Amino acid sequence: MGRSTHLFLLGLLASASPFVSAQSYGSLSPASPGFSVGSGSGSGSGSSSGSSGSSVAASSSQSTIDLAAIGLHTLAKANGLLFFGTATDTNLFNDTAYMQIVNDRNMFGILVPENSQKWQPTEPTQNDFQFANPDRVHSVATANQQMLRCHTLTWFQQLPTFVTTTAWTRATLTAAIQAHIANVVGHFRGACYSWDVVNEALNDNGTFRNSVFFETLGTDFLPISFLAAAQADPNARLYYNDFNIEFDNNKTAAALSIVKLVRAAGGRVDGVGFQGHMTTGQTPSRAAMSAVFRKFTALNLEVAITELDVRQTSLPPTPAQEAQQATDYVSMVGGCLDVEGCVGVVTWEYTDRYSWIPSTFPGTGAACLFDENLVPKPAYTAVASVLAAKATGVPASATIAGIGAGLTGFVASSSSSSSSVANSNNNNGQNVGSTVSSGSNTKANIPAAEFIGNFGGSPGLIPASSVSATSTTNTGSGSSSATGSSSIGNSNGGNSNTGDSNGGGSYGY
Ligand code: 9MR
């Protein structure tokens, strides 16, 4: 029996309400053809356009499903995943349209500070710790009842000058790592679902990267870091996180060796993060991806996709390129869905407006699920669709019109002009305004009851029963992450400097 999907769906049935309350975003609506997904129960369902704040009635056994309204996190939860999330940071918090989507826990159930928890911003000079910015990210997550993935501790980039210039000995660098981790992890104790303890320790050929850590300590910097993190927060899941380990190559094998190495030294590693910085047309198949994940879960590890984006190699993308991107996103997310022990997916910014890709790889980009106008792309619909299909158990027999081959799980039919009315309430007590989605909608047959009620509860909290059987000793730890029970305050200045002063690093992906 896979995950807790069936129990979860039973729970949804039990809490069913007569309405599917949908929300949407102004920027999502008319400009996103094929976006809303309605059921085969007839065009009347949910088509009362223009009535502000109304709900979409489930008038028969099936109802209109708006994949934007349901949101990726809610769909992921329906599959037994713990989260679908995004990176974000304080330098973007004054973009209200952008934040409206970040703040939607149906869309994103976990946030990751894109830069502000890194070593340079948190300890710019030795023993001087600065937490105002990451505290603000945590406060936003707490207010939204979202979890927090914490990122990152021992990494060769975004280091303060004192780390890169001090003439370290083994003893002094060990002490510096331990002090950094004790303070940073200690500050966020109880707030983090997981920590990326060591990030990107490997070269692409699988050898160790020549960082100040490796040069001074050899591989000992790995167990030193994991032991310090375990001591500072016994309940946070501790991850090794890297890119280009998705292809089952030497680097993949080296990542597995890192887990064994740390454990042999008495350290605790709970998970491996697959960053998932992919390129269109160069992404493993869903089956290949799940096979790689299983190599890790076989070691009693959880895995997650931690920084997903799929970049286009030429811009602007053609419809064919967008279809390829949709397929690639589905390979990644589907690969996770197919593996018990893959706990969730995080995108590295959800919109092209703020993606790191174009400045690092000029001429490439358009890598996110939403474009720079915050309009969801075919890749969004594809990911939402594959999550919906898996959750409902609809036979994987059809493709979604307009998105391309490779998407299964729906009985697709096109409808020319149906529109869905979005509710003005995001089920978190927050008024998010009402919009009307219209245009050429893709239709799908989705049993309504399996989604009804999914808006209730606390998607940002981790029920102990949802924690994968393959994860290690920390069951239930995440439940404290969204409750705001830690000592982290909410009063920070408006400083928008996330410490992102070291960008455009010298390594490639
Ligand atoms: O997205 C981050 C970007 O804003 C920073 O300039 C960059 C600095 O190196 O780091 C980016 O995030 C990286 C993440 O922390 C680790 N994996 C690779 C990500 C993209 O470079």
TrEMBL record:
Region (Disordered): 36-55, 418-440, 466-509
Reactions that this protein is recorded to catalyse: Endohydrolysis of (1->4)-beta-D-xylosidic linkages in xylans
Compositionally biased residues, Gly residues: 37-47
Pathway where this protein functions: Glycan degradation; xylan degradation
Molecular functions (GO terms): endo-1,4-beta-xylanase activity
A Pfam family: Glyco_hydro_10
Compositionally biased intervals (Low complexity): 466-500
Signal peptide stretch: 1-22
Domain GH10: 61-386
Matching PANTHER family: ENDO-1,4-BETA-XYLANASE (PTHR31490:SF35), GLYCOSYL HYDROLASE (PTHR31490)
Family from the record: Belongs to the glycosyl hydrolase 10 (cellulase F) family.
Name this protein carries in UniProt: Beta-xylanase
Record gene name: XYL5
